[in-house]
Automatic annotation (TrEMBL):
The chain crosses the membrane at residues 14-37, 49-66, 78-100, 106-125, 146-167. PANTHER family: MAJOR FACILITATOR SUPERFAMILY DOMAIN-CONTAINING PROTEIN 3 (PTHR12778:SF10), SOLUTE CARRIER FAMILY 33 ACETYL-COA TRANSPORTER -RELATED (PTHR12778). This is MFS transporter, PAT family, beta-lactamase induction signal transducer AmpG. GO terms for cellular component: membrane. Keywords: Membrane, Transmembrane, Transmembrane helix, Transport.
Amino acid sequence: MGKNNSGTRRIQPILWISTLYFAMGVPFVTINAVSGIMYKDMGVSDSQITFWTALIMFSWTLKPFWSPFLEIYKTKKFFVVFTQFAMGILFALVALSLPLHDFFKYSIALFAVVAFCGATHDVVADGTYIGFLTNKEQAKYIGWQGAFYNLAKIISSGALVYFAGILEKTKG
């Protein structure tokens, strides 16, 4: 930790940039790619998968429409923390919904909320990055930003799918 211009303690940017951009990548990749693989393995038709995941992904397209309202109600930091916790809980609920008879409608509804939280997180994450770092610091940490986003992509689309396959074989 260092001190900023006002003399207060400041967390090193690498500590929050890593979680910020990792949390940005996970929901996008999970909904965009991993959910399709999961649903296909669970017997959902291609047309349903395509329609519903495309509709849910539309949240990232529409995020500029609600982003101006976010700072009216709370800070960027509040929304970063809130959306990260919410997405964690929502992903757990998706996992719990999968054994249910109507798993598709429950999981797709939960994924829709994850998508809204993920798109909101994207807006406030970038705003936090720009608002809390100087131009020189932004240039210094841009590689870390991309690295942790890409790490989220690798873990979501690689390790998560591999782990899910192991669970499916052992647990049914």
